[in-house]
Amino acid sequence: MTLSGTDFPLPIEVQHTFTGELFPWRGPSPFHFVPVPDGIAAELHALSPLVTYGWGVIPGTARIGETGFTTSLFPKDGGYLLPVKDAVRKAEDLADGDEVTVQLTLRPGMR
User: Fold this and answer.
1) pLDDT tens sequence across 65-77
2) What is the DSSP string of 13-39?
3) Is there a smaller number of Cβ atoms within 10 Å at the N or the C end of the chain?
């Protein structure tokens, strides 16, 4: 896999732990998200050519509490949002406005 003509040995794995506030997205299909902090989002943006599968979406795995799940980060206003599935919210008894700690893992080719 190359980025700007530079070879990167595989597998590359990027891990981050961060805390953010769970918030709802009201729309035709309501979802809940945790914003990725700006510093981490900047790093992910730089790595996105290695890990995105299109539209700037970055696949990965996440863990909140004892619950792990697959997901894809959504680009939004120069940053990223982590979607939190209803099953995760229910398993961890999460509500809008809760501060949650996220363990995030990304790898090229992860889909």
Assistant:
1) 999 999 999 999 9
2) -EEEEEEEE-EEE-SSS-EEEEEPPHH
3) C
For residue 68, the one-letter residue type is G
Domains of the chain plus CATH, in order, are 13-27+34-106 (2.40.30.100)
- 17 neighbors 102 (Cβ within 8 angstroms): yes
Judged by DSSP in three states, 78 sits in: coil
CA distance 47 to 20: 21
Position 54 scores a pLDDT of: 76
Structure tokens at 19: 């805390």
Residue 4 to residues 1, 8, 49, 69, Cα–Cα distance (Å): 10, 11, 9, 32
